[in-house]
Design brief:
alpha/beta; 4-stranded antiparallel β-sheet; 9 helices; 15 strands; globular
């Protein structure tokens, strides 16, 4: 039976220049491969070693990029290795099959959101009313499914996120702070639901996963084995679960370690010991 590998992308497998965490001396920094260009500028990277590992992984497992990015944002990424047959975008709101949207899946998602959550317009209005222009740089709606803000982190009031989370909870929404973005996402809009669907279609009996944010927690819990890097919301909150390995690596070297662990597990090899 095939092995399914479902991985978050940003700050898990790929990294912006600001998130690389190259703390070693310059002469010892890893060689990097640019995997995303936006407006004619390089935007996201992985190490060349991780790129080779990901290429090998494509031959050993069903690799499924699993991201909160919109479809348009995802399609900017040029990952090494075989083109994934499946990709999950918009936090599970869209399932791509050979690059094309599965409209039946999307319709099922919309029906569930309508039944279980406050409407997006209510959330958007609240964000517009309560988020201070002093620290908000952009208001965005993603795929008509969820909202996010681009903010100046150093100006964000300490209690604002807690107040937003308390307001969103009874309305069936959750919030997450990732880098400079604050996400407001309907609770039923999950990566794990879409991963279960891909597992059903492929017949996979072993699912591996990785992610760094609170929006990845359901994905990790749905997997047979999972990994989280030493940075991000999950690391900051010391989140863990029985089948989850908390890695010490941070930044782009965490992405390399995750791809290595994916490949080892997909091949049925013995897990490596702690990094030194």
């Amino acid at each position: 039976m095939p092995v399914l590998v479902a991985s978050d992308l940003d700050r898990t497998l790929i990294y912006s220049a600001a998130a690389l965490a190259l703390t070693m001396p310059d002469a010892r920094a890893p060689r990097l491969l640019c995997v995303e260009v936006h407006e004619s500028r390089p935007l996201s990277y992985m190490t060349e070693t991780a790129a080779q590992l990901l290429t090998d992984l494509g031959d050993a497992a069903v690799f499924v990029p699993t991201t909160t990015r919109t479809r348009k944002q995802y399609q900017r990424i040029n990952l090494p290795g075989p083109q994934p047959a499946y990709a999950i975008c918009a936090n599970g709101g869209h399932l791509l099959v050979d690059g094309a949207t599965d409209h039946d899946w999307h319709a099922r998602v919309l029906a569930r959101l309508a039944d279980e959550c406050a409407p997006l317009d209510e959330i958007r209005e609240h964000l517009m009313r309560t988020a201070d222009p002093v620290w908000v740089r952009k208001h965005r709606i993603a795929e008509d499914l969820f909202a996010y803000l681009v903010v100046e982190r150093e100006l964000l009031p300490d209690d604002w996120m807690k107040e937003l989370a308390a307001w969103a909870e009874p309305r069936g929404w959750t919030v997450s702070l990732q880098g400079r973005k604050i996400y407001a996402v309907p609770k039923p809009l999950t990566k794990s639901a879409a991963v279960h669907e891909v597992a059903r279609r492929t017949g996979a009996e072993l699912t591996l996963a990785a992610g760094d944010s609170l929006l990845d927690a359901d994905l990790l819990l749905a997997a047979d084995r999972g990994w989280r890097p030493g940075h991000g919301e999950l690391a900051d909150s010391q989140w863990t679960a029985p089948a989850i390995t908390a890695l010490p690596e941070r930044g782009v070297l965490a992405g390399e370690r995750i791809t290595r662990e994916f490949l080892r597990a997909a091949r049925g090899e013995t897990p490596a010991g702690p990094s030194r």
